# Entry
Amino acid sequence: MKTIIKTAVVILSIGIFGSCKDENIADAYGNFEDDAVIVSAENAGKLVHYNIEEGMKLEKGKTVGVIDTTQLYLKKQVLLAGMKTIDSKAKSVESQKSVLQQQLDILLINQKRIEKMYEDGAATQKELDDINGEVKVTKQKIHNINIQRNSVLAEKQSLMAQIKQTNDLIEKSIVKNPINGTVLINFVKEAEFVAPGKPLYSVQDVDNLTLRAYVSETQLTSIKIGQKVKVEVDALKGTKTLDGTIYWVSSNAEFTPKQIQTKEERRNLVYAIKIRVNNANGILKIGMPANVYFK
# Structure
């Protein structure tokens, strides 16, 4: 009799335990991923100022470094001096054109007067030819001045483009932090020489981490962008549950990562989803595993 009772208790316990276990199985599993921004140098030169330490919190737009701009500054001064010369040349050309245009206006008046006199017999053919020749020569001079003026304007535009390019390089020599976040890794030190594209440091918004989880095809119909979910992570005492929001669902299937187990039996193909989780209390870490519950 005792044996029968013990057997019944064991069976009942297994049933209850199995039921609880099924209820606690997560809908998806994943890890918090590294979503850091790599800040790189945009100009070549020596880092004359650089103030970055790992773990430092930075605001968006904060100046954290300066690459030596001495040569760029000197180049800009040369260009500005050239611009003054061009402006002076342009004024001279405009002045010459203005004088020639006034001369042409007077010649055209005289031309009409002599043409009328010639028709009335009061002027000779030579006088008409002379005035026509002066008008033609003056028009040609104005044409040549216009060509010279266009050349000067083209030269001025070229200098302006070079000045803008230099200003852009000077601006890119100032390293500004692109996002609000925490410095994860620092790659260089002050006084080092850097080249365009060289990584300086990585920064990530650790107050809002991204959890990449995986779901099976049959689960896709039960999730949507903007859906609120529960995210569970291991804590010092048991587990900690946080709120999360699905903001991305992959449209393509992929092979299941080795470390991921789905709610159902392991499948060959799954779909990735991304969940944004607030980490204001700082308990979440990059790479930390987590369980996801859709309901």
Remarks:
- DSSP finds three helices and 14 strands in the chain.
